[in-house]
Amino acid sequence: MSVREYDVIVVGAGPAGATAAFHLGAAGQRVLVLEKERLPRHKPCAGGVPTSVLRRFPVDFSPVVERAVRRVRFRFADGREVAADLPQGAVVTVRRDRFDHYLVSQARAEVRDDAPVADIRQDDTGVEAVLASGEAIRARYLILADGANSRLARRVGLRREIGSDLLWGLQWAPFFYAHPRVSFEWGVRNPLFLREFLRLFAWRTTYRAMALRAPFLVVLGALCCRKPEAHHDRASEP
Ligand SMILES: Cc1cc2nc3c(=O)[nH]c(=O)nc-3n(C[C@H](O)[C@H](O)[C@H](O)COP(=O)(O)OP(=O)(O)OC[C@H]3O[C@@H](n4cnc5c(N)ncnc54)[C@H](O)[C@@H]3O)c2cc1C
Fold first, then answer.
1. Does residue 41 line the site of ligand 1, with CB under 6 A?
2. In this structure, are strands 81-85 and 71-75 parallel, antiparallel, or unpaired?
3. In this structure, which residue's CA is closest to atom 35 in ligand 1?
């Protein structure tokens, strides 16, 4: 087992991990990014990015920008639609395989792909990422950026199931309230949009709660459906 030392290990080379690596590298930290997939990796995503986000990086993103978005339209299952024109140049689309890879390659960091982290160990002097291969890599700090369904966060006790639904809901809240057009045209003035959001949130929470309680419900169901035992009442015997 080899042990090497960095200031920060970042697990995951998606936009979150790449952004952390970018800023830490620019601040002079020795950064290692560990990505489980081989890069560039495919990511199912609509690929819409506000250009206000891109402007936060001193990087020319034109090599990975596909299109400018002028109008967005949301269509609900029952056929209703909400549409809005966007200010010119406000949103662009990217392909996530190219965009994510480009972003992480702009970071002043060592990037290792095909390197799934299987476990994390921590002691008083730092933290250790243990790869699936058994290799252990040490750093002073470790950032988990392994996606919305981070198994590692659960493994080290940073995430509990009950809070994750709330976090999932909250991560979309800025989308509804921060952008003035969304806030006024879809969020506040048009309650339809907010209602659909709440319905989705409620569905997900209920579904996950049911999944967690499935064994309990099966036992409960079995007990309820059991035929009542014949009750022999001696007092009523002739
Ligand atoms: C269908 C769909 C459409 C979407 N459309 C949009 C959109 O238009 N605009 C938008 O802004 N967002 C969109 N999103 C959301 C967007 O994809 C996420 O917000 C974004 O990917 C989160 O970035 P991240 O870096 O946190 O995680 P991710 O992009 O998921 O990156 C996590 C990385 O960690 C790696 N990893 C996981 N486990 C390990 C491990 N154990 N060891 C090492 N590496 C690991 C993964 O391989 C992955 O590369 C969409 C999502 C979906 C599902």
1. yes
2. antiparallel
3. 12
The contacts of residue 99 (CB under 8 Å, 6+ apart) are 15, 47, 49, 61, 64
What's the pLDDT score for residue 154?
84
Residue type, 202: A
**Choice from 23, 36, 112, 175 to test ligand 1 binding pocket (greatest atom count within 8 A of CB):** 36
Question: Residue 147 in 3-state DSSP?
Answer: coil
Picking from 55, 66, 130, 60, the residue whose alpha carbon sits closest to that of residue 92 is: 66
Helix (H, G, I), strand (E, B) or coil at 56: coil
- The tens digit of pLDDT for each residue in 134-191 reads 999 999 999 999 998 888 988 888 866 555 566 666 666 666 555 544 444 444 445 5
Mean pLDDT value across the chain = 81
First-to-final CA distance of the chain: 83
For residue 147 and ligand 1, the question of a CB distance below 6 A is answered with yes
Cis peptide bond prior to 174, omega within 30° of 0: no
Helices 191-225 and 161-177 pack at an angle, to 10 degrees, of 160
Q: What residue owns the CA closest to ligand 1's atom 4?
A: 45
